[in-house]
Design goal:
The structure holds two protein chains of two kinds. Chain A is mainly beta. Chain A has one domain: Porin. In chain A, 6% of the residues lie in helices and 56% in strands. Chain A contains one helix and 17 strands. Chain A has a 14-stranded antiparallel barrel with strand order 1-2-3-4-5-8-9-10-11-12-13-14-15-17. In chain A, a hairpin with a 5-residue loop joins strand 10 and strand 11. The longest helix of chain A has 18 residues. In chain A, 40% of the residues are buried. The N terminus of chain A is likely disordered. By secondary structure, chain B is an alpha+beta fold. Chain B has eleven helices and eight strands. In chain B, strands 1-2-8-7-6-5-4-3 form an eight-stranded antiparallel sheet, sandwiched between helices. Chain B is globular and about 65 Å long. The N terminus of chain B is likely disordered. Classes of the chains: A mainly beta, B alpha+beta. Chains A and B meet through strand 1 of A and helix 5 and helix 11 of B.
Chain lengths: 302, 347
């Protein structure tokens, strides 16, 4: 038999808090619902992430960053080839002072997840996921911050050791409304896997059946709309209700430990090589110098 | 719901299990009754096409299945003979290190050559060595009982050679094989180092509960194997036994199996059962039905097969991962079929 983590097309960096009670309630309710339905196969995913990036080199760099996320998805089977995906997600970046003048204190999103997994052909699988929600700063529910990015991924399976991935992210509010991606998962040796899937391309080494070490990158990105007075407060009124593309690139090693058959814990550390807060409409772009980071994640499956 | 399935299997299978289809039955019509291939073009199959279909996602969380259909240019009797005599070692892509038949009743000497294949220079075999050496009476990543684990740890010692490991595993496999030959699944030992003890027979039965039509079609063989009640009625079906060493998910893996065969009119049914697997997965069953076919002047055999497998990794595989797993099982099984077809091109 084979290992299948290579097929994980989920974004593992969707951090979190205000939705916790709702999600926990949904989580507890689901098995009952599935049991009552009797004939419905429902699988569930819960991903939690928590990270910290250390102080920058200069006074005007972002001093630090706190990143948290929570994602819950239930996946009921509809037909032999079709599985629905529905759930919710919360992600928050906090940038305490000192920070660049134009960087908001907080960026966060609360969104629903509506999508499906489908087998297109014998060797082709696809996933489509719409993430309608609010994407903004601290005052999340003020103004018009609704967005609905769409992510589509296609997997072409050659065999147990080699799979190709083709992805597309469509976000009409972003500077790059359509962003394509290509990836591959190749287990090229008994203990080594080249897992080049965005947003977390990695080179993985199986220490044993429960522990995996890896070295890789992670891209955290999103498009957010800041508050109606964000610019006025900074004597830059053109930034009121402006759209911001946030991009972060991380590089470093990590460990993934299968603590239970359905529970994986991850710890990673390294450097944030690049950060950008880009008000692309207004041509105002702040960037950060490399800072070290530490990230923890937990992936549970039910 | 589970009780209803059991009831249905019993009701459907018991009264009809001894029914023998008429001589000269139509393979395509027969196949449509239980297979997943609504359209079959014999001409294309005889040209080498392999039909494949991932099985439905199962409610049994560890289960997965896949169906294939292909043709070979020999009669069903010859095809069965070749299938059972086929040496998978000759096809490197299948990564089978060794496959040996067992006497009935089995003897310890059937496992004497086992050490020859335990070359630790091969990484998957090295993994097997490491897991064997790491086994204690209280923990193991292998499919063992606690008593087996303790005995294995004592037998292997601290600085084993291939001969030591081969001899220790030979004793363990012989005990399992002898138990199965003596009393089938009723003597089957559980795997006690999982989250909860795993009984391979229970897993195989759970897999079959998901495929009632197929279980009905193969009822006599499944009864003979002890997977359905009523084995006494089919005591004439005597299995042949084997052990194998192969690579599963980059891990060297032993399996013990039994092959049940019966002729039903003009065609054959076969069940290849892995009742013990040393690790990576729990158990598997492969069902074959082999009919004579003719297209113009060409004759041959139509082979339908269905592989059922139970594995720990599937227990918590979600959504698309389960779809992908099914696709990959199908693709891997297709490699086996291609190699088998290729074997007809060489003398």
């Amino acid at each position: 038999m084979h290992r299948y983590e290579g097929m994980d097309m989920t974004n593992r960096f969707f951090p979190v808090f205000s939705l916790v009670p709702l999600l926990v309630a949904a989580l507890l309710a689901m098995p009952v619902g599935a049991s009552a339905a009797g004939s419905t196969v429902v699988s569930q995913e819960l991903d939690i992430a928590l990270g910290y990036a250390g102080q920058g080199a200069t006074r005007f760099d972002p001093g630090s960053e706190l990143h948290a996320g929570l994602k819950y998805v239930a996946s009921p089977q509809v037909t032999n080839d079709l599985l629905l995906r529905w759930g919710a997600e919360w992600q928050r970046f906090t940038f305490p002072a000192p920070r660049p003048f134009t960087v908001p204190v907080t960026l966060q999103q609360v969104n629903a997840i509506i999508g499906f997994d489908y087998q297109l052909a014998e060797q082709w699988l696809m996933r489509a996921e719409l993430q309608p929600g609010v994407y903004g700063d601290a005052g999340l529910f003020e103004g018009q911050r609704f967005d609905a990015p769409l992510t589509m991924g296609f997997a072409y399976l050659i065999d147990a050791d080699l799979q190709w991935f083709f992805g597309l992210r469509v976000d009409l509010k972003s500077q790059y409304p359509v962003f394509p991606a290509l990836g591959v998962r190749w287990k090229f040796a008994d203990l080594w896997t080249l897992n080049l899937q965005l947003p977390e391309p990695r080179l993985e080494y199986d220490v044993n059946s429960k522990l995996q070490a890896y070295f890789g990158a992670a891209i955290l990105a999103g498009t957010f709309v800041v508050g109606d007075h964000f610019g006025t407060d900074r004597n830059l009124p053109q930034l009121n209700h402006a759209t911001l593309d946030y991009t972060e690139l991380r590089l470093g090693p990590g460990f993934s430990w299968k603590a239970r058959p359905n529970l994986t814990l991850e710890a990673a550390a390294g450097y944030q090589l690049y950060r950008s807060w880009d008000f692309f409409d207004q041509h105002i772009d702040a960037t950060g110098h490399p800072v070290p980071y530490l990230q923890f994640a937990c992936h549970a499956r039910f | 719901m589970r009780r209803l399935f059991i009831f249905l299997v019993l009701v459907l299978c018991s009264p009809m299990c001894m029914a023998v289809p008429a001589q000269g039955s139509d393979p395509l019509a027969g196949l449509k009754k239980f297979g997943d291939f609504p359209q079959i073009d014999v001409k294309r199959l005889l040209a080498g096409e392999i039909l494949s279909q991932r099985g439905s996602l199962m409610k049994f969380p560890n289960g997965i299945s896949s169906q294939l259909c292909f043709a070979v240019p020999t009669s069903p009797a010859e095809t069965v003979k070749r299938l059972n005599a086929w040496d998978a070692n000759r096809c490197p892509s299948l990564k089978v290190y060794a496959s040996h038949g067992l006497n009935d009743p089995g003897e310890l000497k059937d496992f004497n050559s086992l050490y020859l294949y335990l070359d630790p220079a091969k990484r998957p075999v090295r993994w097997f060595w490491d897991q064997t050496q790491a086994t204690t009476g209280r923990s193991s990543d292998l499919n063992l009982t606690q008593i087996e684990a303790l005995e294995l740890a004592r037998c292997v010692g601290k600085d084993p050679t291939a001969k030591t490991i081969g001899s220790c595993w030979g004793k363990l496999l012989f005990a399992r094989a002898a138990g199965f030959q003596r009393s089938g699944f009723s003597s089957s030992l559980p795997y006690e180092f999982d989250v909860e003890p795993i009984n391979p027979a229970s897993h195989l039965r759970a897999l079959l509960l998901e495929q009632i039509l197929i279980a009905h079609e193969f009822a006599p063989l499944l009864q003979a194997a002890g997977l359905l009640p009523g084995g006494a009625a089919v005591s004439h079906i005597r299995p042949s036994y084997y052990w194998r060493l192969f690579q599963a998910d980059h891990h060297a893996t032993f399996s013990l199996g039994a092959v049940y065969l019966q002729q039903v009119g003009d065609h054959y049914q076969e069940l290849d059962l892995e009742y013990y697997v040393s690790g990576t997965y729990y158990a598997s069953a492969t069902l074959y039905e082999i009919w004579p076919i003719r297209d113009g002047g060409r004759t041959g055999s139509l082979v339908w097969c269905n592989v059922l497998c139970s594995a720990p990794v599937l227990r918590f595989a979600t959504g698309i991962e389960r779809l992908a797993t099914g696709v990959i099982l199908t693709l891997e099984f297709k490699k086996f079929v291609r190699c088998f077809q290729e074997s007809f091109k060489t003398p």
